[in-house]
Design a protein that fits this description.
The strands form 2 sheets. This protein has a 9-stranded mixed β-sheet, covered by helices on one side. With 271 residues, the protein is of the alpha/beta class. The chain has 4 helices and 11 strands. It has one domain: Rossmann fold (3-Layer(aba) Sandwich), CATH 3.40.50.880. It binds 2-acetamido-2-deoxy-beta-D-glucopyranose (NAG) (6 copies).
């Protein structure tokens, strides 16, 4: 289900190419899986989840949960995630990020729905349901891809999500048993203007999720990358974090942190 190419706690210095940007947003990419993928980095200490503290998360303008599986946060980490979302933090989930933290209500609401199952990977057609969004505006109306077509345990529209992409079920084979109602059209990517994981009284940031991105080669595809980067940029443009909002409580890095060396390219610094 999860691709096997990553396991890291990575800082991405997202370059906002627009002059209105107050300053450079900082994005955290969290790609932990449980159980860990042993072939990747057998010697790497398992400490990613201990970095989920209020102080650490408060540096970031968005958190990207990338292809996670299983119980990737402990209770301290879940509390820090809740606090981060309450303070205006933005959220992005990619691929199997809907298949982790499956009993954590705040996470399920913030990402929109939980993964149920997928048929074997195959070619499929994705229909662009809403082309007005920065993650979809560049896509062909009928996007031919090779990926896992996820089914979900609930309809993300139930928490207020707007569906952007829909799997064309006539374009691929799925012999699995549907036990849940995921709504129609078949949700494949969606956004929430106000992430539903925020608690009452909090400042909701934005949430974006796409179920695509299983294969390595997909991550070398310019169209797919435009979809991903459009989703991340849109989430950041909530203006609820310090990069774009001087009165915000989270985001925009920490001048005293060693890893904030600026970089013109995404920098993968594993910690
Ligand atoms: C994907 O890429 C990673 C890193 O290059 C490699 O280790 C892995 O084997 C690749 N996975 C597949 C399924 O090709
Ligand atoms: C970040 O997490 C590490 C590991 O738990 C911790 O030692 C450090 O104090 C945290 N930093 C902040 C600013 O919270
Ligand atoms: C959550 O996922 C675990 C595997 O990580 C599984 O054993 C458990 O049954 C799942 N629980 C629910 C409520 O889906
Ligand atoms: C699936 O699509 C790829 C192009 O994305 C194509 O090269 C391949 O032949 C297709 N496979 C099948 C079984 O149609
Ligand atoms: C964020 O700020 C920009 C620049 O002022 C504005 O164009 C945009 O509409 C704002 N977004 C939101 C969600 O308020
Ligand atoms: C800026 O941040 C403050 C404090 O979190 C929040 O109340 C306000 O709504 C934010 N502004 C925007 C445009 O979201």
């Amino acid at each position: 289900m999860a691709p096997t190419f990553h396991r890291s706690f990575v800082c991405l210095f997202f370059l906002h190419g627009v002059s209105m940007a107050a300053s450079t947003p900082h994005v955290l990419i969290y790609s932990a899986t449980e159980p860990e993928t042993p072939i990747l980095s057998p010697s790497m200490p398992r400490k990613d989840r201990t970095l989920f503290t209020d102080g650490n998360l408060s540096q970031y303008d968005a958190l990207v949960f990338l292809s996670n599986t299983g119980e990737v946060l402990d209770d301290t980490g879940k509390d820090a995630l809740q606090n981060y979302l309450n303070l205006g933090g933005n959220f992005v989930g990619i691929h199997s990020a809907t298949d982790c933290l499956n009993t954590t209500e705040l996470y399920g609401k913030e990402i929109g729905a939980y993964f149920d199952y997928h048929p074997e990977i195959q070619n499929a057609t994705i229909n662009v349901v809403d082309a007005s969004h920065p993650s979809t505006s560049m896509l062909p109306a009928q996007w031919q891809i090779r990926d896992e077509m996820y089914n979900f345990k609930s309809d993300p529209r139930n928490v207020g999500a707007v569906v952007l992409l829909s799997a064309d079920e006539s374009s691929y084979t799925d012999d699995g048993e549907r036990k849940y109602d995921q709504g129609s059209p078949h949700p494949t990517a969606w956004y929430q203007e106000q992430g539903a994981g925020v608690q009452d009284g909090g400042t909701p940031g934005r949430s974006f999720y796409t179920s695509l991105g299983h294969l390595n080669e997909t991550w070398h595809d310019e169209t797919f990358m435009a979809h991903i980067m459009g989703g991340i940029q849109w989430a950041l443009d909530a203006n609820t974090t310090r990069a774009f909002n001087s009165s915000a409580s989270v985001g925009n890095g920490d001048a005293s942190a060693a890893e904030t060396t600026s970089s013109s390219a995404p920098e993968a610094s594993q910690s």
